[in-house]
Design brief:
The structure holds two protein chains of two kinds. By secondary structure, chain A is α/β, with parallel strands linked by helices. Chain A is built from ten helices and 14 strands. Chain A is elongated and about 75 Å long. Chain B is 74% helix and 8% strand. The longest helix of chain B is centred in the middle third of the chain and has 35 residues. The radius of gyration of chain B is 21 Å and the shape is globular. The chains are: A alpha/beta, B mainly alpha. The interface between A and B is medium-sized, with 32 and 28 residues.
């Protein structure tokens, strides 16, 4: 898929998306990561027919989005959602649920369920002009789910939420995926993405530059860390062997560049009757991968 | 399948922001004032005097009840058509721009509803609110005056159709300009300009001959044919109330064509635009 933006009066062209192509497994949580202006929101907007591609097409749940009826099965939480301020939380959910083509009964059942789940039950009849940013964000999340969609786009879903709210959103996302729903997340909060996503695509300047599972993207070149209690002469012994280590809280953390090195260090330590406290595979964080791949 | 969500939401919005209430209260006050404060002294179908809020008014010449009622109805109709029109356009001018705000429009466009239906529902919502108020006021005044005088004119209640028509035509300008500029005041300004300029164009038969060049005359005549004829539509209300012959086929025709053009242009623009 390709998308260029042109001004009305200028010939200047902005390449928003260039030959973007990927698929999302049903029942998974997929995240699209990239710096500001990478084209993430444009991609989601095209998928939802809010904007149009120049070339290519988007298929959701096996159907082209040109057939708008597929949008009945799609939920969307936009970045910075703005609801009609004269409505109450209940009216917001009824309005958007009915616009999505769901039956009134389904909408009302789901509205009650999600308002309770997201801690808005007691505010259901309050006009949303009195809502805080966090409450508005929770309502927006409920709005995306009120018609029981099968595919849910979440653009910065935890923006404006407190840590408990973020955790609740993560839990709900996982529950929805376990129930067979597909979740597509745009987010800058990499630590959260790392916690809940099954697959990730990295986007830069309108192109997908890498994609895979969290493990695939973060595992290589991480190395190993062997932790042992600090003992007499152990530090000197590590220095003699040319091993890199740090001493923290009575523990020595020895770095091994690969599995063979880690095993040989463990063998040597065991021969000296030194007990191993722990052994960990050192993974790069998603943030490290992001910074490396995006080239910041 | 028809989903009335946006249409009903437009009503709810006008209720909540007191727009509907404002017009309803003003209309009710006008009806109540005529009903409670106007007392007519009628002898054999001829007006002898009128008492308005305790002030006596004597007639120097012979005025029939029917003439007096027609004059009041004409006055009310002109009030609605001019002042009411200004207020109605002002009250509804933000409907489109608010809907197009970032974070709001995305929530509508991601639904399984064609874009033209979203905008049409909003347009019809705004027009219906104002139509309801106009009909309420005109029919209310007509009913009260009929009860008091026994004169039941046909033209006055029917004239509500003309004022609604004039509003819908100007509202289509608000629609077009607001959607393209995503700015409510810009749409309002465009509609006001056309509305205020329409009496000048309506006098084209008097103005055109005095223009110095043929080019100016052509431009003026062309403008007259293109721009909606709000002044003439409102003028037709007076003739309708006075039960004089009404020949407004071309006024309604060209104004409708203009409104339709605005509507179609808006739908084409709106359905193709990236948000």
């Amino acid at each position: 898929m390709t998308k260029n933006f042109r001004g009305w009066w200028s010939r200047r062209e902005v390449r928003a998306l260039q030959n973007v192509s990927f698929s999302v497994e049903p029942g998974s949580i997929f995240a699209l990561l990239g710096p500001n202006g990478a084209g993430k929101t444009t991609l989601v907007k095209i998928a939802l027919t809010i904007a149009y591609p120049e070339k290519g097409e988007v298929r959701l749940l096996g159907e082209p989005v040109r057939n708008r009826s597929i949008l009945k099965r799609i939920g969307y939480l936009p970045e910075n959602p703005r609801f009609p301020s004269h409505l109450t939380a209940w009216q917001v959910l009824r309005l958007y649920g009915s616009l999505s083509g769901a039956k009134t009964r389904t909408v009302e059942e789901n509205a009650a369920k999600w308002l309770a789940r997201l801690g808005l039950e007691q505010w259901r009849d309050m006009r949303i002009s009195k809502f805080s940013k966090g409450m508005n964000e929770r309502l927006a999340f409920a709005q995306a789910l009120v018609h029981d969609p099968d595919f849910i786009f979440l653009d910065e879903p935890t923006d404006g939420l407190d840590p408990l709210g973020r955790m609740e959103v993560r839990t709900i996302c996982r529950e929805l995926a376990d129930a067979g729903k597909t979740i597509f997340i745009n987010s800058h909060i990499l630590a959260e993405i790392e916690l809940i996503c099954d697959r990730i695509a990295l986007m830069k300047s309108g192109e997908i530059i890498d994609q895979g599972t969290v493990a695939e993207l973060t595992s290589p070149r991480g190395g190993y860390e062997v932790v042992v209690p600090a003992g007499d002469g152990l530090s000197d012994w590590f220095r003699e062997k040319g091993l890199s280590f740090t001493s923290v809280d009575g523990l020595l953390r020895v770095q091994a560049k690969d599995r063979a090195s880690a095993n040989s260090i463990i063998d040597a330590l065991r021969q000296k009757n030194i007990e191993i406290e722990s052994l960990a595979v050192k993974r790069r964080t998603l943030e490290a991968v992001f910074i490396e791949r995006i080239g910041l | 399948m028809f989903r009335p969500g946006i249409f009903i939401d437009t009503f709810q919005e006008s209720f909540r922001n007191k727009m509907f209430l404002f017009f309803f209260v003003i209309s009710s006050l006008v009806i109540a004032t005529i009903g409670l404060a106007l007392n007519m002294d009628i002898v054999s179908g001829v007006m002898q005097g009128v008492n308005i809020l305790g002030n006596e008014l004597q007639f120097d010449r012979k005025v029939t009840v029917a003439q007096f009622i027609t004059n009041i109805q004409t006055g009310v109709a002109m009030l609605i058509a001019v002042i009411g029109m200004f207020l109605a356009l002002m009250a509804t001018s933000t409907l489109f721009a608010q809907m197009l705000q970032r974070g709001s429009i995305e929530l509508l466009l991601c639904r399984p509803i064609p874009r033209w239906r979203i905008m049409t529902a909003r347009f019809l919502g705004g027009a219906t609110i104002m139509a309801f108020n106009a009909v309420y006021l005109i029919v209310g005044v007509w009913f009260v005056l009929g009860l008091k005088s026994g004169v039941w004119t046909r033209g006055f209640p029917i004239s509500s159709i003309l004022v609604i028509f004039a509003f819908v035509v100007l509202f289509s300008i608000v629609l077009l300009v607001s959607v393209i500029t995503e700015n409510g005041p810009a749409g309002l300004l465009a509609a006001y300009t056309v509305f205020m300029f329409s009496p000048v164009l309506a006098a084209q038969q008097q103005i055109t001959p005095v223009l110095s060049r043929e080019l100016y005359r052509v431009i003026f005549r062309t403008l007259y044919w293109i721009v909606p004829k709000s002044a003439e539509t409102i003028g037709a209300m007076r003739r309708l109330i006075a039960e004089r012959p009404l020949d407004i086929g071309w006024v309604v025709g060209t104004s409708s064509a203009f409104a339709l053009l605005c509507y179609v242009a808006t739908m084409v623009y709106f359905t193709r635009k990236d948000y």
